[in-house]
Amino acid sequence: GKVVVGETVVFGHYHQSGAQFPEGQRIIEAVYEIAEFMPLEKGLKITATQLLERFLFPRSTHHQLISTLSGGERKRLHLLQVLMANPNFLILDEPTNDLDIYTLQILEEFLFDFPGCLILVSHDRYFMDRLVEHIWVLGTQNEVRFFPGNYSQYRLALTDEKRQAQDLREANKATSESNAESASPKNDYSKRLSFKEKFEFEQLEDKMTELEHEKASLTEQLYANPADQAKLQVLGEKLHEVTTALEEAENRWLELSERAG
Questions:
Q1: What architecture is the 11-122 domain classified under in CATH?
Q2: Which of 3, 27, 164, 203 has the most CB atoms within 10 Å of its CB?
Q3: CA 173, 179, 181, 186 torsion: positive or negative?
Q4: What's the predicted TM-score (pTM) here?
Q5: What is the pLDDT, as a whole number, of residue 62?
Q6: Would you state the pLDDT for residue 140?
Q7: What is the block-wise mean pLDDT of the chain (261 residues), using blocks of 10 residues?
Q8: What SS3 state is found at 244?
Q9: pLDDT at 184
Q10: What pLDDT score was predicted for residue 61?
Q11: Which residues pair with 38 in a beta bridge?
């Protein structure tokens, strides 16, 4: 097939690797080189200075050298450059990586009001659930599946499908083995789940649910304690650990579910 880009389409692409800034460039210069203001709805506009402040760059830092910024701050500035170009087709590649909880909250609020098309590539289920309306799921066997809904809804639908498939196998026990192995050579047991893997697969659902609840609780605590920097540090580190554990559990669940048929 081919892709035909409309004349009015303006792409904005945020790379997870960040941007390369010229040596000696200052924060305000990086935004001004894109635009001095961004038009909004109903004839309103937001200036580069205002957008910088909205994304946690105080006026006192606007003439600071970019080379003095942390990795997370440089990615935040790269995000601002993308948004300042006023795209109507926005592609965000892992936008939650290395961004603090305050920046994520501001980004969410900005995207809630974004009138254009948004493609979001992320392992952050909580972030996706709040923003997406449908998803493409990349499987473990070179497949891409479209689903109308967010990731949590997809997981529920996938669980229902597995349950229905299990019911069908039990109802047709005599023929289920041949159906499950139709894509593999006869008597090829290499891809079947071992007893240990079956037990692990059964336990993963409860583990993911527990981690999801813990992540949601930690996120709520972060929003509820914006002034307590010491507590924010501890909660942020714990949230990172729980998020990593949840991603590993979800990836393992998807891998085992594919092999379980």
A1: 3-Layer(aba) Sandwich (3.40)
A2: 27
A3: positive
A4: 0.59
A5: 95
A6: 60
A7: 87 84 92 87 84 90 93 88 90 84 84 88 86 83 83 86 82 63 52 77 86 86 72 81 88 81 62
A8: helix
A9: 52
A10: 93
A11: 46
Distance CA(220)–CA(140), nearest Å, equals 33
Cα dist from 45 to 37, 38, 49, 70, 108, whole Å: 7, 5, 12, 29, 19
Dihedral, 243, 244, 247, 249 alpha carbons, nearest 10: -110
Q: Is 91 helix (H, G, I), strand (E, B) or coil?
A: strand
- Express the helix, strand and coil content of the chain in percent, nearest 5 each: 55, 10, 35
DSSP 3-state of 73: helix
Residue 26: DSSP 8-state: B
Q: What is the pLDDT of residue 226?
A: 64
Q: Where are the domains of the chain?
A: 11-122, 151-260
Inter-axis angle of helices 195-224 and 101-112, nearest 10: 90
- The C-alpha angle 228, 231, 232, rounded to 5 degrees, equals 80
d(CA 216, CA 119): 24
Output the pLDDT for position 115. Answer: 84
The total number of residues shown for the chain amounts to 261
Phi–psi pair at 135, nearest 5 degrees: -135, 155
